[in-house]
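Q: Is it fine to ask for two folds in a single conversation?
A: Yes, each is treated on its own. Send the first.
Q: Here.
A: Result:
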Amino acid sequence: MVMWTFVQLLMVNGFVDRYTPVVNVNFWQDLAVDGNAWYRDPSAPPYCDRRYYWEDSKAWGSDRIACLDPADAPRTTYFYQESDSVSLATSIAYGTEYESNEVYVYKHVEKSILVLQPAYWTERETGEVSGCAAFGADGRRLESRVRQLYPMRNASSVKWQERSEYLMLSLEDVLRSAGVSLDDVGGEGAPLRLQGIELVAHVDVRNFNKPFRVFDDSLSCEVRFRVLRNQFTLVRRFYDGTSVAAVQHGVKITTVATGSIGYPSVRALFETLIVGLGGIALAQTIADFVAQFVHPRKNLINEAAVDTLYLSDADKQAKGPEIDAPERDSSIEASRADSPKQLRKRRPRKVED
């Protein structure tokens, strides 16, 4: 029990009060991986001019799904940020979700950078979380793109230091960490670039979670991406009056947050110590009970462990039969004779008034 108390104090940080934080994650779009607003590549990717019809029907699809370059239409919206979620359009169909023969995919959108920054709230404080680390499905850490986009020209610059704490990942990095690619075929038979997909980002924020580092209260933040729904994912509808004029499909990322924020507390320290000491007393009580009432040689144990104390001769004469030691039976005497260690016979002590 003493060891358990030290384990609670040193390895589980049993001296802190823990709160479950409310975590909010903010997303925004940054530069593309080549440093431009949109990835620049004049060549035509292999996924352009492909044929696709939904469920082999001519109602939705085209024999030639061409590519559109976002850099050629900078006023078009491709990123949609909301609280704890972000959507990135990867295709557009002029018409409705069910009838359209003018379908396009956006070129190189997977090269765009997403920035993820969590903030938390507890009953005691609010704050932003910096230095988040993303991990792939194989457990490997994903390298943030911040040093690639913003080389360390001046490490003392406040602006650079703020940026260095951001988690910047390309959409391609995010999809790869979830084990998919925009070139994969989705659940409805269309390439993910055309169909879209919905992911969940699990964000875990906690502190005092490192064994034997009792004074380290720094926050750790881990992000993992998983596939939530593999089907046509609607990003945005565009209207002409009240009629649907076009729809965008793409990648939607929703966040799910967990965590534990701890604060050193004298009350929590004493609670851990009291539970540990109380456990010692409870263990001793159980051991005594088993020895006196359950053990096969309980009579011998009780006789050796207890001395009868008489306060006076009158007390001995009046209450002697009730408090005298139990009579020994032959089995006990035989066991004593056979035992290598003889138990010394304890005689009642007489106390003079």
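Q: Second one now.
A: Result:
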Amino acid sequence: MNVGVIDVALLSRRNDDRIDEPVDNHNGAADLRLSRAVFQSLRASYPLKFMAPKPRRSHPHRRTVFAITYGGGLVAGDSIQFVINVGKGAGLCVLTQASTKVFKSLPSRSAAPTPSALTPHNHSQFPPHAYLWGNTAENQNRKSSVGASQSLLATIEANGFLAVLPEPVTCFADSTFDQYQTFRLAHHSASLVLLDWFTSGRAAYGETGESWLFKRYSSKNIVDIARTPDDDDDDEWATIVQDAWVLDDSNQNEMDAGKQRHDPSYLPRVAPYTCFASLIFVGPRSLPFANAALSEFESVHVGHHGGPKPQPQKVLWSASPLTLPLYGAVVRAASRNTPDMRAFLSEKLEGMRKEFGEHLFERQL
């Protein structure tokens, strides 16, 4: 198991004390000039590595981290767990250097079981179901190979802002990948922008490329908010968003038995598209992004209603609003190629320049 920990806090420029009081939204700009975001912890174990550029002078209360894996991807048996904490008033943007490549899985009889699928070890802060997503006893018995997995648990405190904007996951032929991400908003003033996207495979590989040849891809995102003392519930957290992608080839056992390769069982659900994405906006800092997406989608929907048949779009997408207890939106999109999807996402994330001082989603290109 490979663990990465990121803890960013807002410190006073005067005495380097940690700021424990929430930054008031009305005069936050004045307060932030007297503060700076500092990593209280930034560590990772092989094959994971973090790189943190210096903060921009115009945005000292925001920090950026690049998550990098040696070799550029995950091999069978890799299990990576991220733990992220964004302190009160601080901001953090998590990026990746390049797409996360998932290499071919190995036969279960010769590959070690994925640790996170068996036990939480010393990381009891992870929700118990995080170790079961895609790794239930039923699935383990049905699957004939062991692949890679990734879990993330992020806590965002009052007026904190977390943006997770990775490059897409690209699964190679015969690979298996399971991901479970939980985001906990400890206060109604906390905000989250999450991008989760994946491609059909290595389009430029060989003469014909690889497309939709992986065995399994699953990704589940949970957003929780802390319950108030008035809530009549024993659970500390209330789930406000659940979003998941699951593509599981039920024909994989036939391929493992040495029969001729055929199209995966999930192909009719995804063709002719080769790139899919989810964008989740939650909380006050992400509200401009959510409102812009909802307004655009409403105008497109109303414009097509009852009119002539619309022309095929490069990106097919939808936007669903989130209401109480926190406002936001969930955007889901599909495109026929990755460049069109990138352009679409870049447009929806244009406001990141205001939050972090530059358009971070384009910085890594």
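Q: Anything structural to flag on that second result?
A: Two points. Residues 21-33, 110-124, 128-142 have pLDDT under 50 and may be disordered. The chain is about 15% helix and 40% strand.
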